[in-house]
Write a structure and sequence with these properties.
This protein is of the alpha/beta class. The chain has a single domain, classed as Alpha-Beta Barrel (TIM Barrel). The protein is built from 11 helices and 10 strands. Helix 7 links the parallel strand 6 and strand 7. Helix 5 packs parallel to helix 6. The termini are far apart. The model has no long low-confidence stretch (mean pLDDT 90). This is GH18 domain-containing protein. InterPro entries: GH (IPR017853).
């Protein structure tokens, strides 16, 4: 492991411990007001749903599962953008089959096209500072909307706090989604735990970071939904992760309380153990508990545009869905 990476982990852990020492709640304390979902939640789904053929029974089962779990927004991966900002239609040959077969069983579901790629600053091929590339991404989004998708979900990483290019991209895309009465969603980094945190860690970690309060508000003006990627924190203990989720949940909602935007807090279920992710600490249980803690001081009327987003459909097992239903949806155990 590189020295810079080790230093970044130590730095982030120290900063997080300082923050957590100021919090009034403990991982071992139950939330005083257990929050129940208001039926607005999201899920990231695998590429195979648009890239491979499925039987009618499989589509019906998927629709029933989404409806049962009160997933209102489904982000279907339609294939990564190429270096020019395009996705060839050959990448999603069964997209219309997916849409046409889900809608009869779950007409209220928003079927969104998840469009993503690693940006060059994170070692990827996409350069969103290139105007032509951004315009191609907008054109790609419009093609997918015309195909029948209910919205577009951008997941381009990393996007550094203050980046003007993503603001331009979302502004142009929003003009199209608004005209078509469609939805524009974006995956975001966490909000900085103190002013300047992003600049402090940027020399050491290129793949992710923090967004400032001001940048969050700018992005919120351009989109309908923000899905916070509340994972890959590098925190090794459940208590630490749960508490930082609580802090992020409360802080983001307070920061955006006057904005017309839906906020989804991301909850991880994958188990790709690495230095930035510890599945024994970051998981469905600790994530939901953290979100519920963060909502303690809110009334239900404050949370009409709030839910969680589960990452991901292909990594969530039966036991995790049971926990989600009993603790977040608060319905009887099945």
């Amino acid at each position: 492991m590189k020295k810079k990476t080790i230093f970044a982990i130590i730095l982030f852990s120290v900063l997080t411990l300082i923050l957590l020492s100021t919090l009034k709640f403990s991982y071992f304390q139950k939330p005083k007001n257990t929050y129940s979902t208001q039926n607005q939640n999201a899920l990231w789904l695998r590429y195979q749903w648009v890239g491979e053929a499925h039987k009618k029974e499989e589509y019906e089962k998927l629709a029933q599962d989404l409806k049962q779990n009160k997933i209102t927004d489904a982000f279907f991966h339609v294939g990564p953008l190429n270096d020019q900002g395009n996705i060839e239609p050959e990448k999603y040959p069964f997209a219309q089959d997916l849409i046409g077969n889900l809608k009869p069983y779950y007409p209220e579901l928003k079927i969104q096209a998840w469009i993503g790629q690693v940006e060059k600053r994170g070692g990827g091929i996409l350069d969103i500072s290139d105007l032509e590339v951004r315009n191609n991404i907008v054109a790609t989004s419009e093609k997918l909307l015309n195909l029948g998708f209910d919205g577009v979900h951008y997941n381009i990483e990393p996007i550094y706090s203050g980046d003007a290019n993503i603001l331009d991209l979302t502004r142009k895309t929003k003009a199209i989604t608004q005209a078509k009465s469609k939805t524009l969603s974006i995956a975001s980094d966490e909000m900085e735990i103190f002013p300047g945190a992003d600049k402090l860690i940027r020399p050491f970690v290129k793949q992710a970071g923090f967004w400032s309060k001001e940048y969050y508000r700018e992005v919120a003006d351009n989109v309908d939904q923000i899905a916070v990627m509340m994972y890959d924190t590098g925190l090794p203990f459940r208590g630490m992760f749960s508490n930082i989720v609580a802090w992020e949940t409360r802080s983001i909602l307070v920061n955006l309380k006057d904005k017309e935007v839906t906020v989804f807090m991301g909850v991880p279920t994958y188990e790709d153990k690495r230095w930035s992710f510890h599945p024994e600490a970051e998981n469905m249980e600790s994530g939901i508990l953290g979100v519920q803690k963060g909502l303690e001081d809110f009334n239900k009327s404050d949370l009409e545009r709030f839910g969680i987003a589960i990452y991901a459909e292909w990594t969530t097992d039966k036991k995790e869905w049971q926990f989600y239903r009993s603790h977040w949806l608060q319905i009887s155990r099945d």
